[in-house]
Amino acid sequence: MQPERILIADDDLDFRSTLEDHLKEWGYEVVSVRNGRQAWHILQAKGAPRLVILDWNMPEMDGVEVCRRVRERTGEPYTYLLLLTVNDEEGYVMQGLQAGADDYVTKPFYPRELKARLHAGERILKMQEELIVAREALRVRATQDSVTGLWNRSAIIEILQKEIARAAREGTSVGLIMIDLDHFKRVNDENGHLAGDAVLAEAAARMRRVLREYDSIGRYGGDEFLVVLPQCSLQQAVNLAERIRSRLAESPIHLSTGQALVTSSLGVVASGEAKLVDAPALIRLADAALYRAKNQQRNRVEIASIPLTTAYNEPATKVSGALG
Fold this sequence. Notes:
Largest sheet: 5 strands, parallel
Helix content: 40-55%
């Protein structure tokens, strides 16, 4: 195990040296500074120590002010702050705790007492880490599709809504591709649902490899997927859709029961072309283009038709003939 890093700030050189010796003997990696301003500078850096011992009275910035500034920050991880003070009167101690200190030790300190208080701090930090891990696991479960590892339906729609709003503010365009795997029901019927899940997972992996780093893809439902393309014109979205179609169809997917050649039908639209700031309307246009592709022998890309009403930012109520 790596030693726990600990930051100490004290302007008394002799006291600081004694404290360093104890901490190193107990297995800590020590970062040592002589005033609060230096400590605050270190604590703002990425990967700063999370265990901190601060003298109350220091030049430039005292320990209480450092505590106050640390607690004013938002975000994680948590920093455990321990104040050193020569005054243990109740009102004095309360001032430090109200400023954000987790604990205090009087000077001169008893080594065993300090060691016990630091171990208590380590336990608190460990519990916080475990809570963060558990919370992240819940977040993933709430937003990720369990079969493909992609965003789930609600998450990808939320991403689309955010990107449309951003594009409207910045005067850019969002591309949207809706994808349906051709004859996927046949895969399930002939090979079973486990094989169907394997096909979905491999198809998702192939599509993800085609996308740009800042694009998003989610499972919209069953064997349908949505791809959200920020800062993307209609032509760029069409080109990317064609690459997705080619990548899916380039080789069979190997299954325990044999092989499955998977093709896809794709519908493409772009908010700039449609002049839309409405996610449901954009999805309807892409969906209509997708079904036009499926009705024209599948394994093809179709561009959404833009009804006249849509160009004026009104609800899309009718979708007619293909543009591409």
